[in-house]
């Protein structure tokens, strides 16, 4: 399942969301490509997507979750890649 949090994270003059999969990175990459997110937006275990792509992510089927729940689901799926390991 593809999961997204609200665009609340400020960076580079924009607000950003996190886009993850609780199934596989392959699922995530395919979804991100359909969304039009460039591969360079992939950061270890998630895509950073700008606020202008948020509604499109929901329209394509991403499930909106609070950030903490999104991170919890990512860890439970064994797909979390903490910064300190990379």
Question: What is the gist of this entry?
Answer:
It is globular, with a radius of gyration of 12 Å. Strands 1, 2, 3, 4, 5 and 6 form a six-stranded mixed beta sheet that branches. It contains three helices and six strands.
Describe this structure in words.
The chain has 86 residues and is of the alpha+beta class. Helices cover 35% and strands 27% of the residues. It contains three helices and six strands; from the N terminus they run βββαββαβα. The chain has helices at 25-35, 51-59, 67-76; strands at 2-4, 9-11, 14-21, 42-43, 46-50, 63-64. Strands 1, 2, 3, 4, 5 and 6 form a six-stranded mixed β-sheet that branches. A hairpin with a 2-residue loop joins β4 (42-43) and β5 (46-50). The longest helix has 11 residues, at 25-35. It is globular and about 30 Å long.
What summary fits the major beta sheet?
A: 6 strands, mixed
Pattern of helices and strands = EEEHEEHEH
Total helical elements: 3
Structural class, by secondary structure, is: alpha+beta
Q: What share of the residues does DSSP label as strand, in percent?
A: 25-35%
Task: Round the mean pLDDT to the nearest integer and report it.
Answer: 93
N-C termini distance: 25 Å
The proportion of residues forming helix, as a percent range, comes to 25-40%
Describe the structure using short key phrases.
3 helices, 86 residues, alpha+beta, DUF4031, DUF4031 domain-containing protein, 6 strands, single chain
Give the helices and strands, then pairings.
Blueprint: E1 2-4, E2 9-11, E3 14-21, H1 25-35, E4 42-43, E5 46-50, H2 51-59, E6 63-64, H3 67-76
